[in-house]
Amino acid sequence: MSNLQKICLSIGYPIKSSKSPSLHNVGYKALGIEDQFIYLRAQVKPENLKMAVEGIKGLGIRGVSVTMPHKQEIMKYLDEVDETAKKIGAVNTVVNDDGKLIGYNTDWVGAVVALEKKTNLKGKKVAVIGAGGASRAIVYGLTKKGAKVKIFNRSIEKGEELAKEFDCGFGEIGEMREIGDYNIIINATSVGMNSDESPIDKELLNKNQIVFDVIYSPKETKLIKEAKEKGAKVVYGYEMLLYQAVEQFKLYTGLEAPVKEMEEFAKNL
Ligand code: ATR
Q: 144 and 33, same structural domain?
């Protein structure tokens, strides 16, 4: 191997369970560019984030995927943050453009592409449960596509703030009776991650709905299982993960991602 490989990284804390490295490396292999790109992970404690960002430049790292808890904090250390990431208020992708670090957000694309495989979003009534980072990206994407969004969140203040920012409705999490009439239901909380819990009462789900769970571990969350039992269409968390990675792949390599091969891998995570 004579070429110097371009290095991409996932950073987070903890980072152990991140699926992004394998997903990108599968893409490099499928395109036969694994001698040009390699994707690794690095655990970065919050107090070391600034140094880590300097290290991106120092080491000439090509791209960095940013995960919890750094998505907001990292913005202040970058040379530029694109308009969309600014609106969302979070960066999940950093590109090193000849020493200039530019922040992007591909999470919203991941959510929108995954949903648009099932339906057109314009005019659809969508209930989004949660008001954290994932929810912000999803709500941005949905409103951009003309969906009618109502946010439900446990902490009222945070939920109301997000709703106001994106001109959406807000409801308390204990008052979700009305979501039976919604076209699309999205879990953007951490409820169900490696646990057998669902944030939504099964009785509120029905066969006319599309139910999307951002959680990808486990793949078949309690919410997804119950939605299927009710005859609803489902969108898996891995689909959002996949399509946000596809967008990152383009930003890092300048090439179209091999979606089929990456999907085959992602669905079996
Ligand atoms: P992420 O960036 O992954 O979205 P986050 O910013 O920590 O993570 O947001 C987590 C979301 O899950 C929040 O909306 C949180 O509700 P609060 O704003 O009330 O904290 C929601 N959440 C987490 N645990 C929850 C639970 N047990 N019940 C309901 N909502 C929960």
A: no
105-123 confidence digits (pLDDT tens):
999 999 999 999 999 999 9
* Domain encompassing residue 82: 6-105+244-267
- Distance between CA atoms of residues 191 and 195, nearest Å: 8
In 3D space, the residue among 67, 61, 112, 62 whose CA is nearest the CA of residue 90 turns out to be 67
Return the residue whose CA atom lies nearest to atom 30 of ligand 1.
154
Three-state secondary structure of 162-188: HHHHCCCEEEECCCCHHHHHCCEEEEC
Residues constituting the chain: 269
Instruction: Tell me: do 136 and 211 sit in the same domain.
Output: yes
Contact 90, 137 (CB under 8 A): yes
CATH number of the domain to which 180 belongs: 3.40.50.720
* Residue carrying the six token digits 């709703």: 163
Ligand 1 pocket member 155 (CB < 6 A): yes
110 lines ligand 1 (CB under 6 A): no
Ligand 1 atom at minimum distance from 90 CA: 2
Query: Given a cut of 80, is residue 88 above it in pLDDT?
Result: yes
Instruction: Please indicate, yes or no, if residue 1 is contained in any of the structural domains.
Output: no
**Distance (Å) from CA 177 to ligand 1 centroid:** 20
Q: Is residue 23 part of a domain?
A: yes
What pLDDT digit, counting tens, does each position of 209-253 carry?
Answer: 999 999 999 999 999 999 999 999 999 999 999 999 999 999 999
Q: Is 133 in the pocket of ligand 1 (CB under 6 A)?
A: yes
pTM: 0.95
Q: Can the peptide bond before residue 199 be classed as cis, meaning omega within 30 degrees of 0? A: no
Ligand 1 atom closest to Cα of residue 154: 19
Co-location of 90 and 167 in the same domain: no
